[in-house]
Amino acid sequence: MAQPKALLTLKLLIDTKGKRVIFAETDKDCVDFLFHILSLPVATVISLLKKQQGIMGSLANLYESIENLNETYYIQPNHTKATLLKPTPPPNPGYSAPLMLLNHAPAPTHQKMFYKCRYNCSASYVSEDPKAVCPGCSSTMSRNMSYVAPQQEGSGEGGYVKGVVTYMVFDDLVVTPLSVTSSLTLLNRFNVEESALEEKVVNLGMDQAIKLLKASLQSKTVLTDVFLEDAVGCKPKVEETYAGSLD
Ligand SMILES: [Zn+2]
């Protein structure tokens, strides 16, 4: 398995006249990161965006309502506020660093326990709660079972998509494999003058990841919002390694 990169890299094709990103050329790691957003629990998304101002809608109020409830008085004894507010991170194929950017926990420490009833009961029930009562023999299901995790594929490169391909990510987060024809058609469709085109390599770290997550919920110009909004206060840390016209 390849060593995970600390930062994701995107090569932006920018229309300098229209001040917008046409598309970004990027690799497997970045696409894995984007696709991983879909597997995040809503509570994780809210807690990440709460630090940013102006979270859309009312979900943050739901979240805060749970935070403000007294656990001892109002929450069922078999639950905690944390089960709702900090749900277990979704399973992460390959545990590469970019995918973990948006997860609460840096590594899965949560070991799931299961319980069964007496040895001589033929019913095949298991429970997550050692106080549960077996429907077959009515005894308490207090016998601890060991959970066996499925074998990780050693040959795979981890993540979701295959690594040999270069991918295109559009400003509205449409993701496709890179194709020369589609990028040319695109320049025509967007009516971009070739002289106005500029390439720029940018990094995506935790700050940009959260901005991207926020923009993805409320904007159709996500890459432009995250990487070109220098003028609007919060300046993204952009590392400009190359800038020039295409030809
Ligand atoms: Zn039983």
Describe the structure.
- 28% of the residues lie in helices and 15% in strands.
- The protein has 247 residues and is of the alpha+beta class.
- It has two domains: 28-102 and 166-244, no CATH class; 112-146, no CATH class.
- The protein is built from nine helices and eight strands.
- The protein has a six-stranded antiparallel β-sheet with strand order 6-5-2-1-7-8. The chain has a two-stranded antiparallel sheet with strand order 3-4.
- The radius of gyration is 24 Å and the shape is elongated.
- It binds zinc ion (ZN).
- Zinc ion is lined by residues 117-118, 121, 123, 134, 136-137, 139.
- This is DUF674 domain-containing protein.
- Pfam families: DUF674.
- InterPro entries: DUF674.
Layout of strands and helices, then pairs:
Elements: E1 8-15, E2 20-26, H1 28-36, H2 42-49, H3 59-68, H4 71-74, H5 81-85, H6 97-100, E3 114-116, E4 143-145, E5 167-170, E6 175-177, H7 180-189, E7 197-204, H8 206-218, H9 222-227, E8 243-244
Antiparallel strand pairs: 1-2, 1-7, 2-5, 3-4, 5-6, 7-8
